[in-house]
């Protein structure tokens, strides 16, 4: 696990509550999983009464969903009674698909998106992607890469040779 | 910041060129792939240009001579093979550069560490197409060969040291040439023999000297912002 999925020790009960709230926001492009499950909420600090700073990391540098993620986080925290919410972008350490939780992976597969393989040490980017991606529809590992890039920057397009269905695969990053 | 402009302009200009394929790519999958690569590059450009100043002002309000990108990335798309040859030369370079910047721990390390993983996919995409076109039909082979010949003289400039990037440029160059030679060999293509430095080579983009088509590209890229300052949609 590269990034913390939950608040580190030393956070207050309020911070934990707000962190969970921010993390509960659904991803704008993959609404079946939450930002916490995607592993992009890096931190939350109460700076003063009614003032909160949230650290958010992009999946891809150019991810266009980042702006609506920020707006959604601001909205849920405003609704909770926090008037001043600053969402800041952090790049380091870089987000990796390893930050997606087990629950997040299960939900992706359930929605027909093959989750990334779980260890970056084994996968390590584009080359090893070929080493068996399971079809989210029928479970066959006989799947073929159609295109390295698909509906969003984070996915590749594949087709299952067994059931012939095309499907998105969340690429290892 | 010289280096932030140089690297940011490389990413911005190539992003715009790749975006020009939208609606024109040979197949839908490639349309999506090139647009995704363009989007990654645009994200990198935004981070880099923001290190140098206001990203919008830098992208939309600078004159041609103020851009610091290498001439390679501003070269017109040409046919698909031409675009792939440009992608192969540039993404191989960018991956090697970002790997080094990520290790170096300087001001570009956080972006480089993140972006290098994206660029690995760009390079992988370019390599697969180089193999497919080079080792494909007589026509695809010839187009790939012609494209490499045409772009080769723009590749020397990639390895001119950029002030502010603590990188061993000579080994970067050697690694680039090794990698390219290996891919081209597998693709049954020759490494072009033309000059890459000196009188008949091109390349003063880092000094703000650009090729003819760049002005037209900028005119299109900047037109909306200049005509309707502050427009939102």
Please tell me about this protein's structure:
The complex is a heterodimer of chains A (173) and B (233). Chain A is built from 5 helices and 7 strands. Chain A is an alpha/beta fold. Chain A has 2 domains: 13-89, GMP Synthetase, Chain A, domain 3 (2-Layer Sandwich); 112-170, no CATH class. In chain A, the strands form 2 sheets. In chain A, strands 4-7-6-5 form a 4-stranded mixed β-sheet. In chain A, helix 1 (13-23) packs across helix 3. The longest helix of chain A is centred in the middle third of the chain and has 14 residues, at 66-79. Chain A is elongated, with a radius of gyration of 17 Å. Helices cover 65% and strands 0% of the residues of chain B. Chain B contains 9 helices and no strands. Chain B has one domain (2-227): Ferritin (Up-down Bundle), CATH 1.20.1260. With 233 residues, chain B is mostly helical. Chain A binds chain B through residues 58, 60-64, 91-96, 125-127, 146-153, 157, 171, 173, and chain B through 29-30, 32-33, 35-37, 39-44, 46-47, 109-111, 113-115, 117-118, 120-121, 124-125, 128.
